[in-house]
Design a protein that fits this description.
Blueprint lengths: L1 H13 L10 H37 L4 H19 L10 H9 L12 E6 L2 H12 L14 H14 L8 H18 L4 E4 L15 E7 L20 H19 L30 H11 L5 H16 L5 H16 L23 H10 L14 H15 L4 H6 L7 H6 L7 H6 L3 E3 L13 E3 L2 H17 L4 H10 L1 H9 L14 H6 L10 H13 L3 H17 L1
Parallel strand pairs: 1-3
Antiparallel strand pairs: 2-3, 4-5
Helix pairs in contact: 1-6, 2-3, 2-6, 2-7, 3-4, 5-7, 6-7, 9-10, 11-13, 11-17, 12-21, 17-18, 17-21, 18-19, 18-21
Amino acid sequence: QYKAQFTIRHVINTGPSTISTRGDPNWNMALTIARLVIDIWQTEMKALVRANVIAEIMILRTSELTEDLTSAAVKTSNLKKWLACKYQFNYKDQSYYHLIRALIADKDLLPLGLPKGTVATMSRKSFVKEMLHQATKPKPAAPLLKKGPLLPLIQDASKEIARLCSILQATPQDKESWTMDALLFAVQDAQILFAPWIPLPNTHGGRPASKPSHLAWISFSTPPPPNTISSSSHLLRIDPAEVLTSQLSALSQQTQSDDANGHWSAVEIRLCDLPSIFHKTVPPDEWCIFYVTQAQQIYGPKGTAADSLVSETYTWAFNVFDMNNPVHRLALYTSIIVSKMLPNIFNPFAGARVPAPPLAKTATVPEILRSVREVDLCDLPRNGHGEAAPFIFMVTMYCIAWTYQESPLRKYVRNSSGFGEPWANKHSNKGVTPFLLTRFGWTEPSVTIFKSPRPMQSFRPIPPEAHVIRYTSFITKASQDPQYGMFHAVAYLAGITTAVDLSSRCSQYRSPPVHISMPSLASKRTQSNISLSDNEDEFIADTPAAALSSSTHLAQRSTKRRRFASLS
């Protein structure tokens, strides 16, 4: 108990880590203590696996059978590799593969993945709740061990975290929720996706087990059962061991892909495979705190309002991002599409002597939007424009910050005619501009959007409710047609010109082989046979009608009807 208290005091005195960007020092300290608890839990679980696997290896080495000696060698090699992985309880770095090979000697059982315990799946929140509950018992069960440094540590740590609660006049329920949130954040930060659990009851009777075992595991999601490894490998003239290794690697990748909590890369995924990550509940690897820290280091110390805008907006977006929010998901999918368009994302009319498209001052929002989406975007050689990863964070952050009025970006433009030079240098110089956001339907444009646009004059925000409608339509279009769904989804979100370009130039998906019905587009894409269907018109008719309900737009539509009536 004394050692546990000393450890916690030492962590508090050495200062909090930077696993959170929230400005509350009490919260940051609570997260540091919570991460200490989770790190020690991982150390105990690794020791549990190591000790039991080594015991099995020692038994196998006493055998005279070649098969047992081979199994001992395989277990030894994979145990060492698993312990050397950065994330032992994750799918990264082939950790999952090495763990299975270290635990299971029977090749017939390998395809089944990690052995299941009394509970196959559990949410991270339930896991943390059970951990805190067991810490209050004199004889705790999984996920805690009865002996070891963790039990006294978690008891003192939970009290210390509750003491740090920043809620005014906090109730016991507030403190309990505060402690739960801190430990849950720490589990997520440690990227733990599976854990040792209680094994199934013994068929021979006896007292049921209660402590975690290396032969029983739970997953923090609900992946479908893995495919069975083919038994016909002997028909192929390939070494069976190589076949098994290849199939186990594929199993690991498939399990990670199926796992809603499994890590994934937005840059590596092709647009034709985008529906395969619609079930993910965690952001991609590219959504990381590195970009927030970088913005804080570059712009934070300068202290001016324009510089603070960058660091504060990045911090705000990182803290509020939620994969359960349809608007945030749509912003993320927008950034993925933009990353596939690189380097052609620049507005050809910005800063150039090229005249903007001829649009009347009375042009309606749908007319302006259609004109924006028909523009062929271009490439401009800019510093830092070659890598796609930063655009995932940058575009997602921009879309979210422009949508919500409580964001630092929206607060700044209330008292300013622009975003300021620091913001322009970081975003506009890389092509991430209001013009690009307008193309994807994130702003309500005016006719001045083509040349030096000003916020709240050349473009205005669209309410989050409208983006929820867009998200639903995008997901439906992408999912309903396995072959051409993503083409129709991109056409709906960013226009037919973008959809055709990503199909022909970038080969991100297949285009529907139907005759083009728009002459202006057909002249641009003579090699493509794309059907416009109603994708673009659906978006223009659907979203602005839901989002733009001001009297100005009603008057514009009324003017348009009268003009058409006079022509007829």
